[in-house]
Design a protein that fits this description.
This protein is mainly α. It has one domain. The chain contains 4 helices and no strands. The relative contact order is 0.11. The model has no long low-confidence stretch (mean pLDDT about 95).
Length: about 150
């Protein structure tokens, strides 16, 4: 794709990880478990409910044992990420976006909690749906922050 003379990059030289990349990696993995797990369950649970209705509660409990620790890690690593930024010198738009990220991430946890303890169909449906929507929003806003940070 280049015109002669073409030069190739030196092979064998790669970027070195830093504490910042490790911190971000931990956050992204935890958020991926939290968000991706909800998306996967949304696709799987209707079929399981139809074919094996007694299994949905067992699956939900098993998922909770993975998802809630991931949520805690995502929150803690999110705080760690925020502490690494000099928010006072950031633009007003960045500060507002960071605040929005915190709000939607916490809303995701609140609505997922409502879903987890809910006993009525409305609590289960609304809690699950809004928990997932806010989880996706938190992930999107996190990407937005990173892209502009």
């Amino acid at each position: 794709m280049c015109s002669p003379p073409c030069t190739l990059p030196r092979l064998g030289v790669v970027l070195s990880p830093s504490l910042a990349t490790i911190r971000l990696f931990i956050h992204v993995v935890a958020a991926s478990v939290w968000v991706g797990g909800q998306i996967a369950l949304a696709g799987v649970v209707p079929a399981i409910r139809r074919d094996h209705p007694q299994a949905t509660r067992t699956i939900a409990r098993a998922f909770a044992r993975v998802a809630w620790p991931a949520f805690v890690v995502a929150v803690l690593s999110g705080v760690w990420n925020l502490m690494a930024v000099d928010i006072t010198s950031a633009s007003g738009a960045y500060q507002a976006t960071a605040l929005a990220k915190i709000a939607v991430a916490l809303a995701s946890g609140v609505f997922a909690g409502i879903h987890a303890v809910g006993r009525t169909k409305i609590a289960l449906a609304v809690g699950g749906a809004l928990g997932a929507v806010f989880a996706l929003a938190a992930m999107f806003v996190g990407v937005l922050l990173h892209a502009h940070g």
